[in-house]
Amino acid sequence: MDNELKNNILKTGTTVMGIVCKEGVIMAADRQVTGGGTIVMQKNFKKANQINDYLVVSWTGGVADALMLTKLINAELRLKELKSKKRPTVKEAANLVAMITYKNIRNPSTIPNIVGTLIAGFNEDGTSELYSIEPAGGVYQVEDYDANFGSGMPYILGLLERQYKKDLTIKEGVELAIEALKSSTQRDVGSGYGIDVFTITKDGIKQVIEQEITSEYKDRK
Length: 221
What we know:
The chain has helices at 2-7, 63-84, 90-105, 153-163, 170-187; strands at 10-11, 16-20, 24-30, 33-35, 39-42, 48-50, 55-61, 115-122, 128-133, 139-141, 145-146, 194-201, 204-212. It is α+β, with helices and mostly antiparallel strands. The protein is globular and about 70 Å long.
């Protein structure tokens, strides 16, 4: 029964990524959701989302766990802001996610809670930051780029290793994110069907790309 339950959990094969640029951060993800590791269950599910005025989160792992985690951090950050009378920093938000992730994965359960998270945002002083929280709860600040532990990670990191350069402009970062996502969705069976790209700068958060990936059939000549 346990194995049957685990094999039928909705999860994302997933390509998520973040790129640190000179003026801010790029966050991007695909839209495919799989079930049992082999069936495409949804083709239009956003994995990168703006959760408040200053944060964007993307994740890889179990869908239910990721959605609950997003709700929890949004509520906890709001409570912290009300109590302290000031907005939490991006670092504080990342550490909150890491603490929840660490606690969840160590609670005995027949269904493991495994979620990897990228979180990016801008602070009140205008600085922008990107953090990666591994599925075991470890957290670190990303200085260049990361793809967490999605199935598309090898394709993303291989491309960025060659094409990333320090002090990219936001425009260059967006173009690089699109290229990396399209490369991943061509080769990773767990990723595809759509692309979302966000920019996070001192001027705010913008979704600059929202594209659908469709199959095209051509007659052989």
